[in-house]
Amino acid sequence: MSKAIATVAAIDRQAVRGQPALIPASWLTWLEAWTPTAVRITLGLIFLWFGVAELLQPHMWTGYVPLLASGSSAALFLVLLHGGLLWMLATALILGIAPRTAALLSVGVMLEIILMLLVGHGLSDIVARDFGVLGLALVTLAGP
Is 128 within a domain? Predict the structure, then answer.
């Protein structure tokens, strides 16, 4: 059991003397062990959803390609390429194949997405959401 979990469990026991801890140390140990996996799989599921959406309906996404007309074949090609990259990263993250490499590439992809959204559309709720996904990628990269 890590020192942080032992400290939380001890504080919890001290808070209500004579009664069991609100969160048993065994649960905290389980959470500590499985949280990195849950974060990695969650990031993979997000990438899978967007990757499949871009591959199945690329015309819906061409408006997010800056500096190109949304109806151009170049924009369509870039969306399909991006969707394929997201799908491959999703597969690697979900299955745990080279998770650090996939996480590093995920950080790069999220920075690219955020930058392109800022250039093309300015600060928005979508950019704020994508900063959250970038956070998941960074946590996965820094994982155990």
Answer: yes
Instruction: Note the pTM of the prediction, 2 decimals.
Output: 0.79
- Would 26 be classed as within a structural domain? no
Tally of structural domains, the chain = 1
Chain segment 45-99, per-residue pLDDT in tens = 999 999 999 999 999 999 888 877 878 899 999 999 999 999 999 999 999 999 9
- For 140, residues 6+ apart whose C-beta sits below 8 A from its C-beta are 36, 39, 40, 43, 93, 99, 102, 103, 106
- Judged against a pLDDT cut of 60, whether residue 13 lies above it is answered with no
Q: In the block, which residue shows the tokens 């155990």?
A: 144
Domain encompassing residue 124 = 37-142
97 to each of 1, 19, 52, 85, 127, how far by Cα in Å?
27, 44, 19, 15, 28
Q: Is residue 48 part of a domain?
A: yes
